[in-house]
Queue: 4 jobs
Job 1
Amino acid sequence: MSFQAYLDNVETKTGLTPRQLIALAQEQGFGPGSKATPVVTWLKETYGLGHGHAMAVTHVITKGAEIGSKHVGTEGSHRDSNDHLWLDGKDTRPADW
């Protein structure tokens, strides 16, 4: 599953876009530089996310929307088409993203 697909699935489960989750995390005191464990715990307990999905959201909360190029444009199930993640909701993502 691509990184973007993880975020899309979180949106389906929670009804919240990644950007909305970032804002809610900031209200909890989480943001760039936060340790992953407390953010993951908060996401799991508050939104019922599994570990992988919570880690994907934690990445955008603590490190932003940019991802490493390891899987960008590659073959396989973990490939992403872009090195930046779309945070404003799966239904608003441009077709060429």
Note: DSSP finds four helices and no strands in the chain.
Job 2
Amino acid sequence: MKLHSMGIGYRHDKDFRITRPDGSGDDLLVVFRTPAFVVIDGERTEVPPDTAVLYTKTAPQDYGAVGVEYINDWVHFECDENDIFFERLNVRFGVPAPVCSISGAESALRLLKLESVSDTPKSRECTDLLLRLLIAQTLGGAEVPSAPHSEKLRMLRAEIYGSPSERFSVEGMAARLALSPSYFQTLYRAEFGVSCYEDVLRAKTSLAQYYLANTSISVREIAQLCGFENDVHFMRQFRKRTGQTALEYRRSVSRG
């Protein structure tokens, strides 16, 4: 398998829609991080967060937002669609399905992103293996039975990533699900492989990266827009998750 391009946590407005009647010319894996719609054989279906669909090279693509901010991950790549790999995993092309391992898929995406900028003799081989891992973690295997409160947790996570500027607290999120804070945190980590606090900060950092890359807004204003306690807290958390200060990040993307 050969990677062409990819994106993680891409944001679009509530009217976003992709329509490619003849496909994209390569294989495409889309992971919906927020509620979305997919049109299959002329029939529109709304799907919940953490749903994925794998399109073949020439398959029509029609999907998008359902009236709220839309976030997705996507990977354009090239593969042999008759590879026995897909048959063994019982992967159905063009059919939306729940992501079978959310934390596994996210880890594979991050590793694939890192490998995509690597230039080593084994880079192509590693990319092939990571693409297979990503597909296996996303669409490979039977759906795992829902854990307690699974659907509510997924909707809450979609809200966290859809409205990262909000000030989410563990106590407030737990109360919304009528759970104790400790039990809520246990369920959240079991469902997504990350603490709810870390997930909130990742969502805020992702939004901050968007503002830094696409606007000239000051760091202090960005901290406020992203719902951080203050600019000092923002700068500390941003550097912890990106390895760069906000200004270093802004300079790096402007050079790119």
Note: The mean pLDDT is 88.
Job 3
Amino acid sequence: MIKLDEIDIKLLKALQRDAKANTKALCDEVHISKTPIYERIKKLENEGVIKGYTALIDNKKVGLPLVVFCNVSLVAHDDEHIHTFKNEIAGIDEIMECYSTGGFYDFLLKIVLKDLDEYNVFVFEKLTKVHGIAKMQSSFVLSEIKNTTTLNIRQ
């Protein structure tokens, strides 16, 4: 864990709200001058606190309204099976997120697609071809209640 001071936290919160904010706006919000702002951002990037910058796209507006959460259990839990699973999953574009989980299932996948027909094709042409999957359970998102990328950073 990286030690963050109050200025780092203010800066990170501002960048989470608007990663395109110009330096002057950041200076005004955080109350420090340009050079320290620039240095702090570079430090946070170099330390991996800021992993990158991206545009957040509305999946519905680009024709990908179906969000599916799929729980997956593996046949075996040895290093080879887990490594193979992770490598194959990483190469599938429709899978937006993959988490190793505790409990009944081993992994949770977030999959974004056009519709149920596309999900059916995805399951049988891609997901079932991933080595080592024993069982899957899918849940389909009916409506989105909360979706944020803003972390509640505290000291």
Note: The chain is about 35% helix and 20% strand.
Job 4
Amino acid sequence: MDFRLKVLRKKRGISQLKLAMDLNMNQNTISRYETMEREADYQTLIRFADYFGVSLDYLLGRTDEEK
């Protein structure tokens, strides 16, 4: 799976800390999602997709179309 969280975050110039604060999460958790040390649950994936304005399929690397 090609989880695109880090790519989306960097593309938009957002730090892990800002993303964590915006989503009321821990920065360490964001880091673990990005390195795939931890898998996000369904609700968290939806929060990421909504935050970046992309589809879940794009976030998960199943398509190259953001919407």
Note: Residues 17 and 43 are 20 Å apart (CA to CA).
